[in-house]
Design goal:
This protein is an alpha/beta fold. It has an eight-stranded antiparallel beta sheet with strand order 3-2-4-1-10-9-11-14, with helices on one face. A six-stranded antiparallel beta sheet has the order 5-6-7-8-12-13, covered by helices on one side. Helix 3 (102-111) packs across helix 4 (122-134). The chain binds fructose -6-phosphate (F6R). Fructose -6-phosphate (F6R) binds at residues 298-302, 347-349, 352, 355, 399-400, 483, 487, 603-604. It comes from Candidatus Kaiserbacteria bacterium RIFCSPLOWO2_01_FULL_55_19.
């Protein structure tokens, strides 16, 4: 993995390929490369800007492919960067995904006398395609034959200097789409590079292969049967994917949260009835009547959002909810009572490999599968039986911020919707609905006070460890706060249920090991105060996040961040935002690449 772009048409391909790679930089990568018909290939370790400045002035052509690589097999060097070629240098390919049987295929090809020039799994594919193609197969047939030999996942674009006016693309488990222009096509692994060129897009499905020329395109399956595709319209604006005057996308995206909450709520809150209107669930609503169990799954932040969702659904709808990270769920039997079980998957990108596999497993067993997804038209959005879009707009910073908040908002709506179908009273529903609508303004207040959070962040920016604690709704917020800090500041941080302190973590505490305590005035506030006292008694510093007016907490905390009062179930939304800002300012103080932390990619399309 990580990002693919391609162009075929009447114009010079290079400007789109370089712009496209830049638009994909947010996904994280460590090397980049480009192949253009007539000009050849250039690859560089490091940034797209380095690649762009290495291109000779004459580098141009009407068709080309390019790639940003995030190393999986072999170090991030020029020799391992894509495009990869075959022994005769006829075929050039860019590939996202993983070839699982690459070692055995490599051995087989080496025995046939084929020399390899990289450490990647992808080169096995370029060599295989090259073998068939140089023996006389058309490029598309050579690609198809090679794909039948491999096990694994791919989104790939292939060119050949024997058939220079053609690009063949194929997909299995790794997203790929192409924008449709007039006599030109733009290929991309996500929609961001396409926004500046066209709104008309065709998504490839798993098992599909497309042949693109400037005159047109043909999509077919692996038995060469043609497939009719629908052209869909991209909704995101180009504006939304730009940084404007902000120093980082992460800060821009945090500052957008009030509008994101409004967009997520738009048309979905029935204040008079105290209910949620979820059009995406209308067709499957009947099945909720007999639901006895919900399993929520996701990875990273999406999983933590799901963890808050567990509390919400159990509290408001009385349905037992299990929560499990998708990478574990997909490998355990969770088959009991599939007719009465719903799998609810949470994913910003809608492309996370583990989440997708957990969904496929649940579907196979006959469960109803639902998705809470931000990227419209993504694989999870298309493969789940029904779902709810976040409408959070493109999230470019690798660390999830606005999408996480939007996931929490959707989960509250789901809890309200399921609750009102069961025992939740109109009066309780109305209380929640009213509180939901106040959130955007309340978030604005927190954001307006960000200077104070920046000051606290500066004070702690040199520590080596931070503990985050919370209870009930605030426990997953603690997990998420710790994740945010570790991924962008590289400070070791752990989230814990505060009640666990005496069972181990308290041993870590001394003056150098601060704790962020999520202590809003909620039903477990007194218990949190006891945990804070225990930390203080061991010399630990405490940064408390509490609700407005609770000045008394200053007696037991070293630093205090206030958030507005709201319904207890909605507090995670408000307490999360100071933690995002805290992580942001700590990382900025440490001078780190906040939007693209080391070793991380925005969307994890391989296992
Ligand atoms: C952390 C973060 C990741 C993602 C995770 C799931 O800030 O962004 O932990 O939440 O990789 O990604 P999606 O939501 O795209 O499935």
């Amino acid at each position: 993995m990580c990002g693919i772009v391609g162009y075929i048409g009447r114009k010079d391909a290079v400007p789109f390929l370089i712009d496209g790679l830049k638009a994909l930089e947010y996904r994280g990568y460590d090397s980049a490369g480009i192949y253009v018909t007539g000009s050849g290939a250039v690859k560089r370790a490091g940034k797209v800007a380095v690649l762009a400045s290495s291109l000779p002035d004459t580098f141009s052509g009407n068709a080309g492919i390019a790639h940003t690589r995030w190393a999986t097999h072999g170090p991030p060097t020029e020799r391992n960067a894509h495009p990869h070629t075959d022994a005769s240098q006829s075929v050039w390919i860019v590939h996202n995904g993983i070839i699982e049987n690459h070692a055995e295929l490599r051995d087989m090809l080496i025995q046939e006398g084929i020399p390899f020039s990289s450490d990647t799994d992808t080169e096995v594919l370029s060599q295989l395609i090259g073998t068939y193609h140089t023996r006389g197969d058309l490029l598309e047939d050579a690609v198809e034959k090679a794909l039948k030999k491999i096990r694994g996942t791919y989104g790939l674009a292939v060119m050949s200097n024997r058939e220079p006016s053609k690009i063949v693309i194929a997909r299995l488990g790794s997203p790929l789409m192409f924008g449709v222009g007039t006599d030109e096509y733009y290929i991309a692994s996500d929609a961001t590079p396409l926004l500046s060129r066209t709104r008309n897009v065709i998504y490839l499905e798993d098992g599909e292969l497309a042949i693109l020329t400037k005159e047109g395109y043909v999509v077919r399956d692996m038995s060469r049967q043609p497939i009719e595709k629908t052209i869909e319209t991209l909704e995101w604006s180009t504006e939304a994917a730009q940084k404007h005057s902000f120093e980082h996308f992460m800060l821009k995206e945090i500052m957008e949260i009030p509008e994101v909450i409004q967009d997520t709520l738009r048309g979905r809150v029935a204040t008079k009835d105290g209910d949620a209107v979820l059009g995406g669930l209308r067709d499957v609503a009947k099945r909720f009547k007999d639901v006895r169990r919900i399993i929520i799954t996701g990875c990273g932040s999406a999983y933590y959002a799901g963890f808050v969702g567990k509390h919400l659904i159990e509290e408001f709808a009385g349905i037992p909810v299990e929560i499990e990270i998708a990478s574990e769920l997909r490998y355990r039997p969770f088959t009991a009572d599939p007719k009465h079980t719903v799998l609810l998957a949470v994913s910003q990108s809608g492309e996370t490999a583990d989440t997708l596999e957990a969904i496929r497993l649940a579907k196979k067993q006959g469960m109803l599968t639902l998705g809470i997804v931000n990227v419209v038209g993504s694989t999870i959005a298309r493969e789940t039986d029904a779902g709810i879009y976040n409408h959070a707009g493109p999230e470019i910073g690798v660390a999830s911020t606005k999408a996480f908040v939007s996931q929490l908002v959707v989960l509250i709506l789901v809890a309200l919707f399921l609750g009102r179908m069961r025992t939740l009273s109109t009066a309780e529903g109305k209380k929640l609905a009213k509180a939901l609508l106040k959130l955007p303004e309340q978030v604005r207040t927190i954001l307006a006070g960000r200077k104070a959070i920046e000051k606290i962040a500066r004070k702690y920016s040199n520590v080596e460890n931070v503990l985050y604690i919370g209870r009930k709704y605030q426990c997953p917020v603690a997990y998420e706060g710790a994740l945010k800090l570790k991924e962008i500041s590289y400070i070791h941080a752990e989230g814990y249920g505060a009640g666990e302190m005496k069972h181990g973590p308290l041993a870590l505490i001394d003056e150098s090991f601060p704790t962020v305590a999520l202590a809003p005035r909620d039903s477990l506030y007194e218990k949190m105060c006891s945990n804070i006292e225990e930390i203080r008694a061991r010399g630990g510093k405490v940064i408390a996040v509490t609700t407005d007016g609770n000045n008394a907490i200053r007696r037991i905390a070293d630093d205090v961040i206030f958030v507005p009062k709201t319904h207890e179930a909605l507090l995670p939304i408000l307490t999360t935002i100071p933690l995002q800002l805290f992580a942001y300012y700590v990382a900025r103080e440490r001078g780190l690449p906040i939007d693209k932390p080391r070793n991380l990619a925005k969307s994890v399309t391989v296992e």
